[in-house]
Amino acid sequence: MPDEQPDDRPGEQPGEQPGGGPSRRAVLARIAAAAVLGSTVTVAEGVASRQYAFAIPGSGGNADLPLDEEGDVLVVLCLRGGFDGLSAVVPAADPHYLDARPGIGIPAGQLLPADDRFGLHPAMSPLYPWWRSGRVAAVHAVGQIARSRSHFQAMAELERAAPGSALRTGWLERLLGLRPTDDPMCAVRVGAVSGSLAVPDGTLAIRDLASFGLAGIGGGTELQRWTASLAALHAGARPELAGPVDTTLRALRLAARLSAREYVPEHGAGYPAGNLGDALREVAHLVKAGIGLRVACVDYGDWDLHAGSGRPDGGPMADQLRELSEALDAFATDLGPRLDGVTLVTTSEFGRRVAENGSAGTDHGYGNVAFLLGGGVNGGRVHGRWPGLDPGSLVDGDLQVTTDYRLVLAEVLQSRCGLYRWGAVFPGLSGTPLGVVRPRT
Known about the structure:
By secondary structure, this protein is of the alpha/beta class. The chain has helices at 24-37, 85-88, 97-100, 128-132, 151-160, 171-176, 220-233, 239-258, 275-289, 316-335, 405-415; strands at 39-45, 48-54, 73-79, 89-90, 112-113, 119-120, 136-143, 187-192, 203-206, 295-300, 342-347, 368-374, 382-383, 403-404.
């Protein structure tokens, strides 16, 4: 077995400010940087941070490969740390599963039936009604083509999504560049533990949407004077300078309007306490506000369970799967009919090894599971080609990857989000779509 690479993690998010906020000179410097590079906002809150990407009007368009004006809101939920897909969607019919996991494996009788081959972890019962109604699906043996056991390297490649190329941009950056927009909040990153969405740098640090403002400047009249001054300062400036400032100022006004009244979830939805519930509640708020949101990114970490992952009836894995399921259930319930225009996809940098280790956990592996939730999902089933867990089918003790994760994303973008062709977003990608979603009508 090859040595596992260090559990390295990226450093702090660009724009995080330890201690007090930056000076007014620093604020103006950041706005100047944003004017050149694009405008984003990072929200730091405990272990989570939120990043709002404000598209520059008229920038980055590609007439040959545009996005339709109409399409689903794409929500990318990244399960950081290396998600254990074999514990979430258990290959109950595979005779090698319990042999490999005698201590942490889940017997078939305790699973929630998914199909004739797989079962869901019992802690996922809050999400199970959505599975049975056809709004939730899974893709097994999914992952990256290039293998890596390093969190940092694998996450960087996951977000770049261009193996074998020299591209330094991320797939979301390339996607957003296909459709120029005047919407000040066309893309949102909520609840990030760390990392690089690969949107332009030049960030402003805030705590949350409700307190979104210019650092070091109060609200009310003082904020109005500053925004008026900044608008006047850039009046008549070149579009590449004036555009981001105008977008940021409009985003300030929009954030103030959205946070003027406390958001109340609908249809009896109850979000679980914690970062994930808070993040998905905010995404639902933005979806329902009708502000032109096209992409939302949410990160949910702490899946790196090398030791003591627990049994089906308790432990860290069960606790996190329950929180994940409760949050997704609340999100879908809260959206109500609007779920028909939303597709959520999960990703992770890699899976876990098939065999449990000596500490009742699992180490960094390869093949994984991706979940999909939405009104256009062909749900209630496990998609993808299952390679099996017999020793001859494993790759260095890991589950094979039989579906490139980019193919799942590409199908969602093309069938649900209005992307005409995926080559500009995922260069070099080939393959036949799996049928995980239905085309929009």
